[in-house]
Design a protein that fits this description.
Blueprint lengths: L2 H22 L3 E2 L4 H25 L1 H6 L3 H17 L4 E2 L2 H21 L5
Antiparallel strand pairs: 1-2
Helix pairs in contact: 1-2, 1-5, 2-4, 4-5
Length: 119
């Protein structure tokens, strides 16, 4: 799959994940209008495409020792950064952040498998 098409699909998947989070996770506020939702999804996608691989590479030995738990923490950090960067997304506390990380991670994993985005 071409790069730009994959990025557009990733933004769409993240938009779906943020929409699900806003409706099913208490303590998380995500914009309901489509332009703001797509902007937040674009920011999350940009963080996941640029910063997350760098942190994954730097923390690979620790991730190996913790059997992948560090990768979950890095995903939570990306969502926390989205909360700090975007004034439209609000996450109130560590429990909503944890639930948000789980929902977004599962949504990304399921949709990526269904759309054959994993190589």
């Amino acid at each position: 799959m071409r790069g730009i098409t994959k990025l557009i699909l990733l933004v769409g998947i993240n938009a779906l994940a943020l929409y699900l989070v806003s409706h099913y996770v208490p303590g998380v506020s995500v914009p309901a209008d489509i332009p703001s939702l797509l902007m937040a999804a674009g920011i999350l996608t940009a963080l996941n495409v640029t910063l997350k691989p760098l942190l994954d590479a730097l923390l690979a030995p620790i991730n190996w020792i913790t059997l992948g738990f560090t990768s979950f923490l890095i995903s939570g950090l990306m969502i926390s950064l989205l909360d700090k960067i975007s004034d439209k997304v609000t996450i109130n506390g560590p429990v909503p952040l944890l639930l948000c990380t789980v929902v977004i991670g599962l949504t990304n994993a399921i949709c990526s498998q269904l759309l054959f985005l994993k190589s």
